[in-house]
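re: the backbone from monday

yeah here it is again, tokenized this time
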């Protein structure tokens, strides 16, 4: 091997080491595993959120568990606001139409809420949809760390949140869910 080949070899080996071994001085190597793992060293969502001990991982798992519970609460809250709009007529820009109405004015069918584009109800639902969409994808990224403890915390948080809020829902199938 001549001198030029040796320099190219040294550079490519150094480049290879640099790509995969980002030591943080804490004994943790930062690599993004593409398989499920149970390690305590984990970078979660961004550079500033790193765990290096079991206690830090446990605290992160608790935070992720609570985020899952709150996410289910947000989904219920959006549906509750929508249901409330079907029974309230306070917003003059909301049109409520009912199918299968009898001559007496009582309706036995389902109520359909149609917001106008600039109604307060539609603006609130749009903002909540933005928050729900963002939270959904952020929680998906947490799951994609493939850390078993974080995945378990997230799934348990979603299950507990559904337990607390799901029994109040009027539909079983959630058509607003983004990551199903």
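seq for it, each position gets an aa:
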């Amino acid at each position: 091997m001549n001198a030029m080949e040796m320099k190219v070899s040294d550079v490519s080996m150094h480049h290879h080491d640099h790509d995969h071994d980002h030591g943080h001085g804490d004994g943790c190597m930062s690599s993004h595993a593409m398989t499920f793992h149970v390690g305590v060293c984990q970078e979660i969502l961004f550079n500033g959120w790193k765990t290096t001990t079991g206690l830090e991982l446990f605290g992160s798992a608790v935070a992720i568990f609570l985020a899952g519970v709150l996410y289910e609460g947000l989904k219920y809250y959006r549906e509750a606001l929508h249901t409330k709009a079907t029974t309230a007529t306070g917003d003059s820009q909301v049109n409520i139409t009912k199918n299968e109405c009898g001559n007496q004015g009582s309706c036995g069918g389902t109520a359909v809420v149609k917001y106008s584009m600039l109604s307060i109800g539609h603006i609130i639902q749009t903002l909540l949809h933005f928050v729900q969409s963002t939270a959904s994808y952020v929680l998906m990224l947490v799951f994609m760390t493939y850390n078993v403890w974080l995945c378990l915390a997230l799934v348990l948080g979603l299950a507990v949140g559904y337990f607390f809020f799901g029994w109040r829902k009027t539909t079983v199938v959630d058509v607003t869910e983004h990551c199903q």
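The radius of gyration is 25 Å. Residues 41 and 52 are 5 Å apart (CA to CA).
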